[in-house]
Amino acid sequence: MCGIAGFCDYKINYFNAKEHWNNVLIDMRQRLNRRGPDQSGEYLRERVGLSHARLCVRDIVGGTQPMVRGKHAIVYNGELYNSDEIKRDLAQAGFSFETASDTEVILNAFIHYGKDFVKKLNGIFAIAIWDGERLYLYRDHVGVKPLFYAFCGGSIVFASEQKALFVYPDLEPIVDISSLREVFGVGPARTPSNGVFKGVHEVLPAHYLVFSSTGAGLVKYWSLQSRPHEDSYEETVGKVRHLVSDSIKRQLISDVPICSLLSGGVDSSIITAVASENLAESGKILNTFSFDFTGNDEFFEANAFQPERDRPFVEKMLEQYTLNHTFLECGEEMLLDYLYEATDAKDLPGMADIDASLLYFCRLVQQRNKVALTGECADEIFGGYPWFYRDELLHARSFPWSKDLTMRKLLLSPELLHTLQLDDYVENCYHQALSEVPRLDGEAPNEARRREVAYLNLQWFMQTLLTRMDRASMYTGLEARVPFADYRIIEYLWNVPWAMKCRNGVVKGLVRDAFCDYLPPELINRKKSPYPKTYHPNYTAILKARLLDIINDTSSPIRQLVDVKKVRVFADSPQGEGSKVLKTPHAEQVGKPWFGQLMAGPQMMAYLIQTDYWLRKYGGADTTL
């Protein structure tokens, strides 16, 4: 994995100030150095500049970028999982290869097949290619790898992360009303293609952008197709097993050792089991890591969303498979400190302690491995979240993971609420998303609604989790691969009916049946338990102290956006016990999750802390309409 950046302008000759523009490329790349600390390079021509920060995983010697072949140049972030097949076809067409890197395969495929070559790729990628006349920006089918861009005068500027864009002359990070609607209305999610900062966009998944002397155009190269599912249940089980196993095995390709992040849940355990079995054939033992928080053995509280701890199920896997396993823990003080670094990594406030702890854990994993397999995306495609089967969530007329804006609006100032009009903003986002759902004529109402919810998950919730994983891992120099995000799996499961996904009323029964012989019985029947969080009471106490320090600081940018009195009251009762003193309707909602399954009162305090830090870093917010 890597970081890429660059710019293009048909009215500027960059060679007229070659040293200056090369330094701009270097500065952009240095903002991304954490994504690729091993090698770097720049490419500058009259109309274009490309920069690359490399994390060496495959063809460590020969894979240096930018890679140039004649008039063509490429910078690339990602992994190509069908590189061998494409390379074989290119060799038969007369291409020779100077390296063993997938970068050269991609560039030669572009040269041979043209701009739609991307349809042949199976992988995770953000790619910039200059063909001597036009700049092409490609993003993978599912959106695992990020790619942001902005226009500045006649220039297009692009980068793996927003922070690198703002090195370009006259391109400033501006937080405006639209930004705050994203942060407080749908955050930590983002509206597709919205880069939150004014004028910043992200190339949509399954799209590529073409920038030429006549302007810019966005092209969609892949989309889901809704059609009747005609396979029997047994055939469906077999295809799921093949597709998932094939994806895992393809993603074991690396010139450095690979590990897996083993939570003890069904998804990460399947990945671990298949990977371990495959590596064992060549005498290798898989490294695995699991995460928890100091004090959870004492303070953990079972609830509807998180019914049990992970560790007993990890231990069941250790009994069945030979693994080099490490249990990692994070303390509450460390968790608080990492809220700030997680904001730096993401360039935005995020999933609070979930982001912070994942960043901390990735840093520890990276000390032993450069590549990790993760279980993200399985719940979105197999229907593991409660909003697929709990009626009150399934039929919520908004985003089901964030269906009530009470908590979000509760602490904002009346003036800001009037300006933001969050209910209207979120409703418009929701209905716009529904208008894009690929529908199937004649589908039963409940099945049609689940298709809607599945689409919302793929386009919104899953993107949030993929962003979280990419930023946390790449900020520490760890490459995270996501086998369940293979577009072939998503394409197939899109049309599998709920009766098969939830066979006999068992949530995710399909994937459980597909891999029942790989996992211990206790684990294959385990209820979903999400990413862990801390239950230590001291975490809430130190969050409160930090938030009150911020609110008491008259220079605090968040102070200008919130109702200070309500924040102080809320800090004394973030779990909701004393929320009625806030004198607001639906006060009982205060202690319930406001995003996903785990972000409740303490996470709202952490989100405000992150938002204040973010606003300080980027110069505050312009709240004028």
SS field, number of helical segments: 24
Average pLDDT, rounded to a whole number, is 93
The protein's oligomeric status is single chain
Q: How far is the first residue's CA from the last residue's CA? A: 40 Å
Structural class: alpha+beta
**Bulk shape:** globular
Output the radius of gyration. 24 Å
Major sheet: arrangement of strands: 2-3-1-9-8-10
Task: Please give the share of residues in helix.
Answer: 40-55%
How many beta-strand runs? 17
Beta content comes to: 15-25%
Low-confidence stretches: 576-581
Report on the biggest sheet.
6 strands, antiparallel
Note the main attributes of this structure:
625 residues, alpha+beta, six-stranded antiparallel beta sheet, 24 helices, 40% helix
Structural commentary:
With 625 residues, the protein is of the alpha+beta class. It is 40% helix and 15% strand. The chain has 24 helices and 17 strands. A six-stranded antiparallel beta sheet has the order 2-3-1-9-8-10. The chain has a six-stranded antiparallel beta sheet with strand order 4-5-6-7-11-12, with helices on one face. Strand 2 (39-44) and strand 3 form a beta hairpin. Helix 2 (83-92) packs across helix 3 (102-113) and helix 22 (537-551) packs antiparallel against helix 23. The model is unreliable at 576-581 (pLDDT under 50).
